[in-house]
Amino acid sequence: MAKITPMMQQYFEIKEQYKHCLLFFRLGDFYEMFFEDAVIASKELEITLTGKDWGQEERAPMCGVPFHSADGYIARLVERGYKVAICEQVEDPKTAKGLVKRDVVRVITPGTVVDNTVLDETKNNYILSVFSSANGYGIAVCDVTTGEFQTTEFRSVQAAAKILDETARFSPAELVCNSEFLSTPLAKEIEERFHLYLNDIDSRMYEYNTAKDTLLAHFKVKTLESFGLQKKLLAVSASGALMWYLNETQKNDLSHISALKYYTTGDFMLLDVSSRRNLELTETMREKNKKGSLLSVLDKTQTAMGARLLRKWVEQPLLSKEEINQRLDGVEELFQDLFLREEIKEILHSMYDFERIMSRVVYQNANARDLAALKNSVENLPLLKKILSRCKSPYLSTLHDRLDTLENIHALIAQSIVEDPPFSVREGGMIREGFNEELDTYTKAKENGTTWIHQLEEEEREKTGIKNLKVRYNKVFGYYIEVTKSNLELVPEGYIRKQTLANAERFITPELKELEELILGAEDKITTLEYDMFCEIRNAVAAEVERIQYCAYIVSVIDCLQSLAEVAQNRSYVKPLVDDGDVIEIKGGRHPVVEKMMDGQFIPNDTYLDREDTRLAIITGPNMAGKSTYMRQTALIVLMAQIGSFVPAEQAHIGIVDRIFTRVGASDDLSAGQSTFMVEMTEVANILHNATNKSLLILDEIGRGTSTFDGLSIAWAVLEYIADTKQIGAKTLFATHYHELSELEGKLSGVKNYCIAVQEQGEDIIFLRKIQRGGADHSYGVQVARLAGLPNKVIRRSGQILKQLNAADITKKAKQIAVESKEQQEETAQQMDMFHIAETQLADEISKLDVMAMTPIEALQTLFELQKKAKGL
């Protein structure tokens, strides 16, 4: 190893610091990779694997990519889960003495990509930090492309489930954590369910004091109280460690991450992993595509910034009546004023993604085209503000007042950057003429150098009288004046002899040397001056990052409102009445996605749920009749109302719900060793443990994964539990094939029967897609099987078996159980009332005790008596 070359010694020293990264090592115009990195990269990128001498007998495996086209290669590696360390030459090779200094300038990971050509502009690219401790969990999430930074913590027994829900909501590209979390079953579940690679980082960075110091240093503050983080130890640990990780990998200015927001899950409607998947909010269950999701229907945004914000709105519906109605009023005004909306759309359509442009500006990797795009984006902000001044709704008026027109930013870029700048910032051609006098002089020298030399030649001929005097150039002397020997007596005293030839003499003058320096150095000086000026302009823009980010947010909100108004107009949606009551009443409701796919052929249905008479609707009917669609449309209409959207209905009154739970469809989780039925029961358990009387439950075919009697028993018991106001009492749509459950109407308070209307024609059925009062007396399974194309012999035999089974008359048994169930519930209610009375008496007795006046013996005796009474309850 003593014979190793100096360059490879340098490579090994740097690689040692970045063992877990693929090291892109800059050599001239290429990024080279060596040894194992080269083997991996050549395979993943499908590029040739070669070798390089490095002072040993065997050549080092090597491959490389051109530095000017490296972004695409890096993106492919990061997409496959690799980290890429970019090692640059940090000094000019022309002036370097010996080996050029190199160092890693940035580590690119899935959660820290900022290249717009790689990212989906309609989605945030989040990195999530999870801190696990004996007291609970802290999480922090950041999008380095926009500067968004949020944190929260969970200490309850349901903390692990909430981590899962938040991971589903943010859908991070990368997750970092402490080593304690990495060893938990939850970490494994997240890794498998979300296909995430988990990185554990130095646990010392998660220590509270270290994390706190990291945040104080970044935000340049003395306390974290302004961020609402007092006593939020777990949140501080998670966010401080994440900020350390970002500093370590980005090695760059992160000033665009200018604030840290502490949030609570109570700020928004909670949606667990299953509900997000089942309702297909942002992607479909099967293809994982946006097309076919609720977002695809609602997204008519004109900007990438608006598209990202609308996705957030869909993923986190509001719980505040005031905020919801504020949005609805804004949508209503744009809905009613087509001309206003079209004017706003036209302006928004001309805007680039200046929220993400600003991250590149702060990172100092934005080029002149980025600044030109920023200028073109903010150019019409004054006009947008003028248009918004016509708005009457309080929300749009507030947005008008808060919209910063950024006129000084526009003026700076317009005066300095040319209209169509080049891609590279190192080759000149970016700065507008007239912006800098010195630069203009060099530019003129470059463009007019030949003309200036000809002019000087003519002036010298006239001044000296030497008609054949010539001004020439070579690489040795530069520019010189050549005079034939026959005219040497005419040479002025100010000429300085440089060379004698056989037939002529060559001279220089101070004026010629000055012009030479101007002409020959013009190109290099133009490039250097332009780059320095561009960096100054870019830094001036970066200093305004908070203003520009907030302006981008205001523009995004306006874009979301116009998008919702546009969809409402095109799809004939109505403004819902949203309040804090307990009624969900929908007249002529339609499924937003299915209706769009059916192009107007959708059959609307009504829904009515409240806390008293109709809090649980049992829906029976055959498969394919539309039960699942009906229930999902109800959930989606409620959700749309709570994001501030108009809804697909003739009329809607929505009492705000705190959570929407869905249990729809069947799926195995074989990797976790769970069958379809086990998955179903796990999801039902989650609902029963977490639903409240303010929740909306969508349950489809509970108990179908096991035997008929087992399934019916479970479904029955679940219904009783949900309907009981002392347990849950949530508004519920419960679809089932067990039409025996219809017996519960009249036996359980708040339960009503509904069914999907079906018309029989001989042995066939026609689905009418209409919900009506009453229960179905059978499931039409054999008829549906006939429609599916089962052989006639199978269909006939199914009919014979069905008649034999019906003879057992399970319905009679169900009626008997329903009566017993009602009597048992009344008895249980009486027992509970007695328990509550005794409990209250015991609490009163405890509250009247004067503990401070008791002796230790008296206190123990009193405690013993109270314990006896408590055991007797």
Automatic annotation (TrEMBL):
GO terms for cellular component: cytosol. ATP binds at G621, P622, N623, M624, A625, G626, K627, S628. Keywords: ATP-binding, DNA damage, DNA repair, DNA-binding, Nucleotide-binding. Residues 695-711 form the DNA mismatch repair proteins mutS family domain. The keyword Ribonucleoprotein does not apply. Signal peptide: none annotated. GO terms for molecular function: ATP binding; ATP-dependent DNA damage sensor activity; damaged DNA binding; mismatched DNA binding. The keyword Ligase does not apply. GO terms for biological process: mismatch repair. Belongs to the DNA mismatch repair MutS family. HAMAP family: MutS. This protein is involved in the repair of mismatches in DNA. It is possible that it carries out the mismatch recognition step. This protein has a weak ATPase activity. This is DNA mismatch repair protein MutS.
